[in-house]
Amino acid sequence: MNITLISFVVLYLLGTLGLGVWAGTRIKNTTDFAVAGRSLPLIMVVTTTFATWFGAETVMGIPAKFIQGGLNAIVEDPFGAGTCLILVGMFFAARLYKLNLLTIGDFYRQRFGKGIEVFCSVAIIVSYLGWVAAQITALGLVFSVLTNGAMSETMGMVVGTLAVLIYVVIGGFLAVAWTDFIQMIVLVVGLSVIAFFSADLAGGAGKVVEMVSSKDLGSFLPPAKFTDVAFFVGSAVTMMLGSIPQQDVFQRVMSAKNAPTARTGAIIGGASYILFAAVPMFIVCCAIIVMGDHGLEMVKNDYQRLLPTFVLTKMPLVMQILFFGALLSAIKSTSSATLLAPSTSFVENILKNLRPGMGDKQQLFAMRATIVIFAGSVLMYAVAMKGTSIYELVSSAYQVTLVGAFVPLVMGLYWKRATTQGAILSLVLGIGTWLLFFPQIGGEELSKMFPGQLAGLAMAFVGLIAGSLMPQFLQNRQESVHHVKGLNA
């Protein structure tokens, strides 16, 4: 156990806690707590949107998937995830910013009514279980590796959850934004230095390129077969579109000081994520070259420990400090906002409907209490799901919002004829079709032939269009029949 390394990690954690306490002194109302008072400059919007996705799976999940299957295996993340932020900036940020909303659920209420607001908010909240659980799982793994097994992964999850929970409860999104700003600097600098050092250990970047080429890891497009193309597209749109109606993305974009800043920050943040996600992939390729068969074995059986093990066994102390500082920055920046987001949605879009007379101070207290309850629930879920890969926990989280919440959002913003009846039918057909593909209810054969989330997305569009147009069509037809009868009379 390296006491010096652990001491630096503890100091880093205490520093973020102190920043959260400082941010807490500037929280005066729910708007400050939920969206930082809509006051952030461009640089902080870029870092906080970039931090939306740069989490545990980016450092420990994506690189292993790349080694196992090449670029084709990671179309969902980082390519889909980064494109999501770009699309948010191009088509959603300015329109939503001008509505001056606190949560994404507020849009569903204004456009389609309270029923759709509650249902979509529930779907969004549920989707966060897997996402936050992935970050907590990673924190447990990091603390276990750091202490050489002296701290179990379960205890590491508890410690990691508390470390994030305290500054989020006290400082809200203002604490998240400031810690994201500092943590992304640590992450970018730390991983960049590690990449240069790793290349030197591997014998130069040229050897890494040779290895990638020899294993055909640069192949991106799937074989030209219907099933392969369908699953490729299904993977791509899961996070690309399913992440758009997410409260953490909404909060980070809406915290900007104005609409142009919200739009530009999301686009730059998304593009930066796609580009910089290549850095941990490069480091893992270096690790495979340096560690040889042992590294390949870890990719197959224990890939989440590969990078930490590589750094701890092959690099000097200063590199270890940089790496674990960067890794903790990635995990904490993602987990902090994803703890805050569902709690904000619950209070604003569900609790306020149950208790409509709540004042601002009551809402603020309720948000903080809900964060604690949600954190405890996710911790129990993460412990129960221990052994599930971080990448799978993240990718499964967004299918429910893809088939449920995305279509009412995009059609509600861009199609004036969209109605509440259409939104209801969209939810029923989208989620109902998606569920038919679950192996647990007999959809095992279906799920092998076509991706359930893509089928659900298609039926959600059909439902919204048909549900919006059908009543008007029937009314017009009825009026036409009455008119003909009148003429005949």
Write the layout of secondary structure elements.
Layout: H1 3-24, H2 30-35, H3 42-53, H4 56-69, H5 75-97, H6 104-112, H7 114-146, H8 153-202, H9 205-214, H10 226-242, H11 247-254, H12 259-276, H13 278-291, H14 293-301, H15 306-314, H16 317-354, H17 360-384, H18 390-397, H19 399-404, H20 406-414, H21 420-436, H22 444-449, H23 452-488
Question: Could you describe the 3D structure shown?
Answer:
The chain has 23 helices and no strands. It is mainly alpha-helical. The protein has two domains: 3-399, Sodium/glucose cotransporter, CATH 1.20.1730.10; 415-489, no CATH class.
- Fourth-tier CATH superfamily name of the largest domain: Sodium/glucose cotransporter
Helix residue percentage: over 70%
Question: Mean pLDDT, rounded to whole units?
Answer: 86
Radius of gyration: 24 Å
The count of helical stretches stands at 23
Would you tell me which CATH topology of the largest domain applies? Sodium/glucose cotransporter
Backbone shape: globular
Please identify the structural class as seen in this structure: mainly alpha
Largest sheet: none
CATH class of the largest domain: Mainly Alpha
H-E order: HHHHHHHHHHHHHHHHHHHHHHH
Strand fraction equals under 5%
Q: Can you tell me the CATH architecture of the largest domain? A: Up-down Bundle
